[in-house]
Every structure is written in structure tokens, then in C-alpha cells.
């Protein structure tokens, strides 16, 4: 029995908390929200997340949405897993910076890339193409920031020696670039980093459970 339920869809933004839950190793339940049938827009799901977005974490009486918030909650309520630096330390401040950057900057740019029609008038095909192209270019510069962070931290993880919830989050976002002209895997340090991530048993379990096929990144 478990009090934790993760409402998910394969390779969606729920993938990061799914990987975090697997790292923690405590029992949890996965609840599929079928986007193909617009279940994320159903009245039942909207009672959990009025934004109609995936994921949602139900943890006892707590219902939480926003991927970064879910991952942070999981880290804070499982301190034995050491998935975040200690409170009040400079490392924790760096951790907050990168978590906010991943969700507010890189993920936001990826959303623009995948849904460019949201930023132009209906039927503006040329505008859609232009928005997508600019988004891909912007994402390329952001991936270079991740590359530089791996270099400055000394690796093997984004914060250096400590594996944290930043790593599943970054892995998920890098995975979303696999169809780009220059995906994350083609950068020297990021490519090695993604292979290290793929070698983790928790990541392998998520890929299998979500039924994902190669290329994984």
C-alpha cells in the first residue's frame, strides 16, 4: 500500500518525478492520464490540476502539481536519499538556481518549440515555422549552458559529485531534444552525462515502465 500516486503520461513532464520516485525506492502508484483521449482535460482531472497539465502527485491528502515542485517535495520528504543539498548551504542556493532555470528557462523554451502555434494567429503557417526555428536556436544556447555547468562542476552530475533531482529533470529535457538538428547528446560533456544517466537502474526502470523505445536521448 502507498499514499503516493503519480498521474503521468509516457515521456511527458511526469518523467522527471517518475525517475525521482524510482531513485527514492519507496512504493508508489502510477496512474495513466491518456492524453490521446484528452483525459488531462476531463472534469475529474481538472479537479486535481485546474491547468489541465501533467503531472500531478497525490501524497496522502496533498495534491501537488508543477513538475519542479513535485520533485522538490519528493527530495525534501526523503532526506535519506540525499537528492538535494542541505538547507541553508551555498550548494542549496545553487541547486535552487538550477532547478528554477530548468523549469522556467529551458523547459519554457522547449514548450515554445513543441507548441509554436500558441504564439501566432490561427493559420499562420509561416509564423509557426519561424517561432519553432527561433525556439530551437534559443534552446541550443541553453544546452551550451548545461555543457558549461558540467565542465565547471567537474561532473559527473550537474552539481558535481552529488546526484540530485536536477539530474532526472535535465535528462528529461535533454531527451526532448532528440529530434533536433543538434540534440543534447551531440555535445561532448552532455553526451557523456546522458549515457551516465542511462546507466542508472532507476532510469532504466522508468524507460521500461513507460514503454519508451530507442533512441532514448
TrEMBL record:
<protein>
    <submittedName>
        <fullName>Glutathione S-transferase</fullName>
    </submittedName>
</protein>
<feature type="domain" description="GST N-terminal">
    <location>
        <begin position="1"/>
        <end position="82"/>
    </location>
</feature>
<keyword id="KW-0808">Transferase</keyword>
<dbReference type="GO" id="GO:0016740">
    <property type="term" value="F:transferase activity"/>
</dbReference>
<dbReference type="InterPro" id="IPR004045">
    <property type="entry name" value="Glutathione_S-Trfase_N"/>
</dbReference>
<dbReference type="InterPro" id="IPR010987">
    <property type="entry name" value="Glutathione-S-Trfase_C-like"/>
</dbReference>
<dbReference type="InterPro" id="IPR036249">
    <property type="entry name" value="Thioredoxin-like_sf"/>
</dbReference>
<feature type="domain" description="GST C-terminal">
    <location>
        <begin position="88"/>
        <end position="216"/>
    </location>
</feature>
<dbReference type="InterPro" id="IPR036282">
    <property type="entry name" value="Glutathione-S-Trfase_C_sf"/>
</dbReference>
<dbReference type="Pfam" id="PF02798">
    <property type="entry name" value="GST_N"/>
</dbReference>
<dbReference type="InterPro" id="IPR040079">
    <property type="entry name" value="Glutathione_S-Trfase"/>
</dbReference>
<dbReference type="InterPro" id="IPR004046">
    <property type="entry name" value="GST_C"/>
</dbReference>
<dbReference type="Pfam" id="PF14497">
    <property type="entry name" value="GST_C_3"/>
</dbReference>
